[in-house]
Amino acid sequence: MPQPTLTLIPPSDPDTAEQWRLDQRMNDLAGLILSHTPGDGIHQTAIARLHLVHLTVPQPPAIGIYQPSMCILAQGRKRVMLGDEVYIYDRSRYIVGTVGMAVTGEVLDATPERPYLCFRLDFDPRAIADMVLELNLAIPPRQASARGLFLENASIPMVDAALRLIGLLDTPEDIAALAPLAERELLYRLLRSPQGWRLVQAAMQDSHAQRIARAIHWLQGRFTEPLRIDDMAAAAHMSASALHHHFKAVTAMSPLQYQKRLRLQEARRLLLSESLDAATAGHRVGYESPSQFSREYGRMFGAPPARDLQRLRLARDGLAVASQY
């Protein structure tokens, strides 16, 4: 005798029904992420800019760089700290980074029964700029500089676009033709969202946000060298005073603070991956004084290099990816 099928009927109240439908889409997204992540970790997919993350344990605070991207959580919860600002997101709202942001991230909710499941799409700045021009979107005032990190409420059209993109992993022969269309729809939904003007600002040539993005790129390539603000300002085509003002408006920190984060993060990587001693790692990233390096390292990571390295080695297989996804 055939088994009866279960039909899920949405509630009659419009607001409740809309939330119900969004929850169903998020459940579908969670299922697809699970099917393409065989275990804990960060999973590169066959779609170049798409990464999937699966974690079954919470992750402690970790410092890292958010590259320009959007992250949708199908399951779980995360806290991101940008300077003194705190951003908490879950399946009800996603996070967007418009430039490379130095942040501290912490995965709050993750269990084997309900793992943390994240969909991340990295941005193609040229595709965003082309779409802004094609859609003739309003350009924010040039003098305004907005944070390069923001939260936006999840929506059914946005999650549907994410489902279409990740669904292509089941038909790899369709990726080359259809993935660009699905990515384009995600960008379109984002640009049309209430906070989409921030992405418009970051994408447009000669905007302050675009100039700060250029300054960040310049700094990321030279962070081991002494910081010369005039050279950095020249690379961004700004005055030194304008660079300071708009850099802090976008990143919530000064260029010197940003450089320090880059240096200490790279030193931490060197300590773990190349087994360097603290003095050598500090010198490699630009510190002339070992004592200054150890002091600033301890302030940043909560322990001096030797003790932090012990902790890192114990956690090496524990997937400390909170800062990136």
- The percent of residues in helical segments reads 40-55%
Classify the secondary structure makeup into a structural class.
Answer: alpha+beta
Main β-sheet, spatial strand arrangement: 1-2-9-4-7-10
Poorly predicted runs are none
Distance between the termini: 47 Å
What's the arrangement of secondary structure elements?
Blueprint: H1 14-35, E1 41-44, E2 50-55, E3 59-66, E4 69-75, E5 77-82, E6 85-89, E7 93-97, E8 101-109, E9 116-122, H2 125-135, E10 149-153, H3 156-167, H4 175-191, H5 196-203, H6 208-220, H7 229-236, H8 240-251, H9 255-273, H10 278-284, H11 290-301, H12 305-315
Antiparallel strand pairs: 1-2, 2-9, 3-8, 4-7, 4-9, 5-6, 5-8, 7-10
Helix pairs in contact: 1-3, 2-4, 3-4, 6-7, 6-8, 9-10
Question: In a nutshell, what does this entry contain?
Answer:
This protein has twelve helices and ten strands. By secondary structure, it is an alpha+beta fold.
Defining traits:
47% helix; globular; 12 helices; single chain; alpha+beta; 325 residues
Characterization of this structure:
This protein is α+β, with helices and mostly antiparallel strands. Helix content is 47%, strand content 19%. The protein contains 12 helices and 10 strands. Helix 9 crosses helix 10 (278-284).
